[in-house]
Amino acid sequence: MSQQNKRPPSAGGSQRPSGQQPKSQPPRKSGSPPPVRRGAAPQKSSFMVTVDRILPPFSVQRYAVIWILVMVPLALALLLLLRPSSGSNSAASQATPTTAAAALPTPTTAAVTNNQQPPAAPTPAAYTGAGFSLTGPGKYMVFETAKGRIVAKLHTEPEANVSGTIANFEKKANDKYFDGLNFHRVEDWVIQGGDPSGNGSGGGSMQAEYNMIPFKTGALGVARAGDPAVNNDSQFFIVKADADSLNGQYTNFGQVTEGMDIANKIAIGDKITSIRVEDRK
Fold first, then answer.
1. How many CB atoms lie within 10 A of CB 209?
2. Is residue 192 scored above 80 in pLDDT?
3. More confident residue, 251 or 65
4. Could you tell me if 129 and 237 are in contact, meaning their C-beta atoms sit under 8 angstroms apart?
5. Is 109 within the bounds of a domain?
């Protein structure tokens, strides 16, 4: 090989001898993308050009705008999550004798809402039922049910402070108000009935009366709503187990003397055949 045919290596590739024509590129197929020049910067859109002009890259203004765009949606999302629902507010504000929940006896006093204290209950009589006889003369409330008979002796002694309650239930019972109604609430510790609507939402209202007779097994009480000064005038309950947390908080106006085994068999929906109040000598 002659010396004149040798070429030194080139950083840019092989050199073309002088006078030699460049090789032609093969034609591109129709529809194929044009060749991309390697190392060329991508073309920016007019929008990005405008953004770069207003908010130069790596500037404080640009980072501030990005921070705002990220944080504002997050703050709005947190506010929506933490906002109290309207349903809970309306439920907390409802405490009327016409609602099923309000008419049920519970071992707690009315809830405090809006930093307000619950209404004060009338001062209960100090009488605890000491010396009360479960037999002998007196008024007896007789419940005839689908499962059998329940009898409760009423606290007619003046110290019991429930004369108005007894007069109300005696009149309703002997007027056949309860005939055909049902027991709408049954739990392991209580049975409740006397609601004309059959679901715990019915009945009227009457002045509540209190004493300190303990709610032992078989105690006969009156359901009420959130206001301890007002009782439901038709819904009664019988506790199937000691419920001392109700003492002085619910009206205790009688004690089962017969048929506690029947009370324990009562189920939701069982019919009250009749209720009568008898004067026994």
1. 21
2. yes
3. 251
4. no
5. no
Residue whose C-alpha is closest to residue 244's, from 189, 176, 183: 189
CATH number of the structural domain spanning residue 174? 2.40.100.10
DSSP at 250: S
Percent of the chain with pLDDT over 90: 55
Whether the CB-CB separation of 193 and 236 falls below 8 Å is answered with: yes
- Rounded Cα distance between 90 and 15, Å, is 88
pTM value surpassing 0.90: no
In a domain, 2, yes or no: no
pLDDT band at 110 (very low <50, low <70, confident <90, very high): very low
* Number of structural domains in the chain: 1
Distance of CA 201 to the CA centre of its chain: 18
Give the single-character DSSP code of 178.
S
Exposed, middle or buried, 161 (CB in 10 Å: 0-12/13-18/19+)?
buried
